[in-house]
Amino acid sequence: MSKITDKLSKVDIEFIKKQKMFFVSTAPKDGKINLSPKGLDDTFKIIDENKILWLNYFGSGNETATHLLEDDRMTIMFCAFEGDANILRLYCKAKVIQEKDNSWNEYISQFPIQRAARQVFEVTIENVNNSCGMGVPLYNFVAQRNELTNYFDNSTKEEHIAYMKKKNQISFDGKTTKLFED
After folding, report:
1. Helix (H, G, I), strand (E, B) or coil at 161
2. How far does Cα 85 stand from its chain's mean position?
């Protein structure tokens, strides 16, 4: 039986801190629903029981930011792949903070590793749903992948911007991400 609350509990916060991966889902008003697995250490920061900051590195697309221009809803899901079964869903409203924004320094300063940051999402939790998760298989965590962080560490900010200008300005649905425009 699932349990729905309007904020994170101490148990929820401890559960989140132990997870190595989470999933993010957003959708535009018209177009493809996007569901992305996310990892990488030190990119998910709990501010309080209703607020999260998520540091988003650049990659092959920028669907989440594009969708939030049309619809600010976001669902974040954590699954227990080890230990006691649990699925934790966070039903949220989110906004995008990018380097072009006046508040960028305030947000990016919350993270110890800032290289290759594309944006920070400020996420406000509206509901928290804990459910059993007994259908989720058990997995052994080996490590975070290092290909992306190695690329970030061995390339310049100018190369990062060139990549984002080439790959991150238009969504899979052909919509603008507004990454470099107001």
Report:
1. helix
2. 22
Among residues 2, 1, 74, which one has the least CA distance to residue 44? 74
Using 50, 70 and 90 to split pLDDT, how confident is the model at 1? low
Using the structure block, give the residue that is written with the tokens 């899979």: 172
Structure tokens given for 32:
């493809």
Instruction: Give the Cα separation of 151 and 8 in Å (integer).
Output: 35
What is the reported pTM?
A: 0.95
CB neighbours (10 Å) of residue 8?
21
The residues, ordered by sequence, that sit 6+ positions from 102 with a Cβ below 8 Å of its Cβ are none
d(CA 26, CA 68): 7
56 bridge partner residues: 119
